Amino acid sequence: MNRLLIAALLFSCHAAAQPADSWPTYNGDYSGRRYSPLTLLNATNVRHLSPAWATRFVGGAPAGGVRISGTPLMVDGVLYFTSLDNVWAVDARSGREIWHFYRESKGDMPRTGNRGVGMYRNWLYFVTLDNCLISLDAATGKQRWIVPFADPKQLYFSTVAPVVIRNHVLIATGGDSFDIPGYVESHDPETGALQWKWRTTPASDEPGIETWPGEYAANAGGGNPWISGTYDPDLNLYFVGTGNPDPVGAGQSRQGANLWTCSIVALNPDTGKLVWHFQASPHDTHDWDAVETPVLIDGQGRKLLAQASRNGYYFLLDRTNGKSVVSVPYLSTLNWSLGTDGKGQPIPNPAKEPAPDGTLVSPPTSGATNWPPPAFSPRTGLFYVATNEAWSLFYRTDPDPHPQGFAIREAALGGARAALLALDYRTGKPAWRHEWRTPAGVAGILATAGNLVFTGKGSYFVALDAATGRTLWHTGLTNPLTNGPVSYLLDGKQYVVAGAGDTLFTFALN
Q1: CATH number (domain holding residue 43)
Q2: Residue 129 DSSP symbol
């Protein structure tokens, strides 16, 4: 499929379907489902899946080396992917490097992951750790322009994969515990010029300020939305999750719900105006970012949005207005909530606030799940999410009336249990649970029309039956899975690609 046709599909007002022979956005399409319509590889023949190629990449080496935590895009037989400060173009048939771009970030920031690139026509977009938006020529890797959008001296750092909606390149800030406001921005794909900015905390004259003690607390309120959102072209709404409020863990200086942190929000991509919000964790004191992918589902005669949130709740919302349809725990050990109110929002239990002598809480700060993407299959009606049941003691370490930064200490307890959970999207109830016998990190997920679910379990890449959770195939990798797997069609052959550390592993049927 050529680039102009893909551009017409993705960036027109009426297309959200996943092209079968490509993977042109972070989630495959605008819906966030991470669902491939391909069926050449299926539950019957997946046992014959074999390596097609594996390539190790050495970039302009930041401390710690290359880690491919971004999702590759595949367009016209080329894979485009990132690691910190690095972008590659690779032949999708062979793994041969076509070009490599490197720019070293400046500043003292955490060496975290980069989620990938966005694409518009023949141009690529990615953000650097030190908060620059860069556009590259997709054919050559040559830089077209670079635009700073946040100050690393304020301890912002950025990792999000840009989302392109018509003539808007949507990006967002990252950062944690630094008492700064987060925001989503839109930039012109031709020039990089700023089109609009939406802050995750309100100014003194804006709605939502009543959920803070005042403008000072809101200005230091955090809420950085560091994962890509999803888009409904019919409603013309961009849905994105926001991060935790600052100071982290200590809420005594920010009494109130602290909007718009720990929320799912709907923005107009043309204006940046907030249309609706739903808060997953009001007045969060446990570092439970609600940035997890908002997955768009059309069912029961309604336009719906589903999220498995870091706090252990599954939310199903009417995406036309943000009203709750279902709000239920998916984590069996969850103990911080007193249930939900009449609007489906969880009610925090005051007894589970961090305390000087420790409070036992589940889930821990790492969450019941985290940023690695979930998947949804319209074939099975199941929502797939990687989960972790665990406990921690939360200690409040800063009793000052105006604490700053990270104001809690966490002591993790043993006995964590990791599992891939398949939820009935309509109710949030588990249809099956595939528990890993040994501890495994939360990994990204891919569902396919071939009745398959691909994910990682430690250093193994695994295919499960999408309807039952039964293991159908697995293979060892050199490192744990570090991105969300993707699938695409080339020359009549279906490929599956997974990143593990510094290596892309690609599989196909012989």
Answers
A1: 2.140.10.10
A2: T
Q: Which of 293, 294, 340, 331 is nearest to 312 (CA)?
A: 331
User: Within 10 A of 357 (CB to CB), how many other CB atoms are there?
Assistant: 7
CB neighbourhood size of 62 (10 A)? 17
For the CA atoms of 447, 435, 330, 387, the dihedral, rounded to the nearest 10 degrees, stands at -70
Q: Which is nearest to 115 in space by CA: 212, 223, 228?
A: 228
SS3 415: coil
213 with 161: CB under 8 angstroms? no
Q: Output the CA torsion 328→329→330→335 (10° steps).
A: -170
Q: Within 10 A of 326 (CB to CB), how many other CB atoms are there?
A: 20
Task: Give the H/E segment covering residue 4.
Answer: helix 3-11
Distance of CA 419 to CAs 102, 233, 451, Å? 37, 34, 19
Task: Tell me how far CA of residue 5 lies from CA of 24, 75, 455, in angstroms.
Answer: 11, 11, 30
Helix (H/G/I), strand (E/B), else coil: 458: coil
Q: Mapping DSSP to helix (H, G, I), strand (E, B) and coil, where does residue 73 land? A: strand
Query: Which residues are CB-neighbours of 205 under 8 A, at least 6 positions away?
Result: none
* Spatial distance between the Cα atoms of 436 and 504, rounded to a whole number of angstroms: 24
Report angle CA 9, 443, 58 to the nearest 5 degrees. 80
151 is catalytic: no
Other beta carbons within 10 Å of 282: 19
Range of the domain at 25: 3-509
d(CA 463, CA 454): 5
For residue 11, give the 3-state DSSP assignment.
helix
Domain count for the chain: 1
Amino acid letter, residue 274: L
SS3 category, 26: coil
Choice among 85, 130, 232, 287 that is catalytic: 287
Give mean pLDDT in consecutive 10-residue pieces for the chain, a chain of 510 residues: 48 51 95 97 97 92 76 97 96 97 86 92 96 98 97 90 98 83 97 98 94 94 96 98 94 95 98 98 97 96 97 98 98 96 96 96 96 97 96 93 87 90 98 85 92 95 98 95 94 96 95
- CA distance linking residue 139 with residue 280, whole number of Å: 42
Q: Determine the length of the chain.
A: 510
- Distance from C-alpha of 404 to C-alpha of 253, rounded to nearest angstrom: 9
Q: How far is 249 from 362, CA to CA, in rounded Å?
A: 14
**SS3 for 302?**
strand
